[in-house]
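Structure (tokenized):
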């Protein structure tokens, strides 16, 4: 394995762990009465401000060509959809379960790459799809008495699909620019998108109050936004979209641990089996791509 693949692998794993901490900040802020639009607006707005300051220090121009702007616009819109649907799902189901269902995006990535980019569709990909579907159904039925919210499951699946498309566009877009410039535009789109969402939904735009709220807002701005996005750019460039998605296995594991040990979310045998099947589905794709 060459140096770039090693760096890409480390970045992919670190990005997944960072992104898996989303529930930590989101649920704490929800508990303090903040709306989804407000949480995401401050998350992306502060992250964009930090990226802009870094670019100013680096004397990096934000100028891009029209084809690059179109690709960046697609990335921004996809990340708006992925983030908004994921955070809305936290209101309908345990965050650890939501983050595990989100991890179906590596399977979606592999299927899309096979259907539209002529990657060979192997039997193992079909098996992975079936395993992930069974895993999602097990998570949906939970402990066998109370099923998860169907709306919540659909929101997470929409988040997974848009995230898979985000990774593919990042890989195939061939953006010859720094990760800071890429995320300068992606985060700007997301901040404006959350402001528009809040206005259209009629939810008031709230300002964090108190040191605790600001701490978790800054956490969301740095860890699952700046760190995760910048690291994922390098991972996608150095090891490709499918491998980046595969290394995201650390994401649901991180979220589940946070949900169980920080928020006391339930975790029974059926949930454990559902998580195991989804991770097994991704593991099969790993062997198919070796």
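Design, position by position:
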């Amino acid at each position: 394995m060459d140096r770039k693949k090693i760096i890409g692998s480390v970045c992919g794993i670190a990005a997944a762990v960072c992104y898996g901490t989303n529930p930590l900040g989101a649920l704490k802020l929800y508990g303090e009465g903040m709306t989804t639009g407000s949480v995401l607006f401050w998350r992306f707005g502060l992250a964009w401000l930090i990226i802009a300051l870094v670019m100013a220090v680096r004397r990096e121009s934000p100028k891009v060509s029209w084809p690059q702007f179109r690709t960046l616009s697609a990335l921004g819109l996809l990340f708006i959809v992925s983030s908004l649907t994921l955070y809305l799902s936290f209101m309908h189901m345990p965050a650890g379960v939501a983050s595990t269902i989100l991890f179906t995006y590596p399977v979606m990535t592999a299927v899309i790459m096979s259907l539209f980019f002529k990657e060979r569709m192997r039997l193992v990909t079909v098996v992975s799809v079936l395993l992930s579907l069974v895993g999602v159904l097990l998570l949906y039925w939970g402990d066998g008495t109370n099923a998860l919210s169907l709306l919540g499951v659909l929101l997470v699946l929409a988040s997974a699909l848009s995230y898979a498309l985000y990774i593919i566009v990042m890989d195939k877009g061939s953006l010859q620019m720094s990760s800071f410039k890429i995320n300068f535009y992606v985060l700007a789109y997301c901040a404006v998108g959350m402001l528009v969402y809040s206005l259209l939904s009629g939810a008031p735009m709230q300002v964090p109050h108190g040191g605790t709220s600001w701490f978790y807002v800054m956490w969301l701005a740095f860890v699952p936004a700046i760190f995760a996005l910048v690291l994922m750019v390098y991972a996608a460039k150095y090891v490709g979209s499918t491998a980046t998605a595969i290394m995201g296995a650390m994401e649901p594991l991180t979220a589940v641990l946070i949900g169980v040990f920080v928020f006391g979310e339930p975790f029974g045998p059926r949930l454990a089996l559902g998580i195991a099947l989804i991770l097994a589905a991704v593991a099969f794709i790993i062997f198919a791509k070796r």
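Reviewer-requested clarification: Residues 3-289 form one domain. Residues 210-239 form the longest helix (30 residues).
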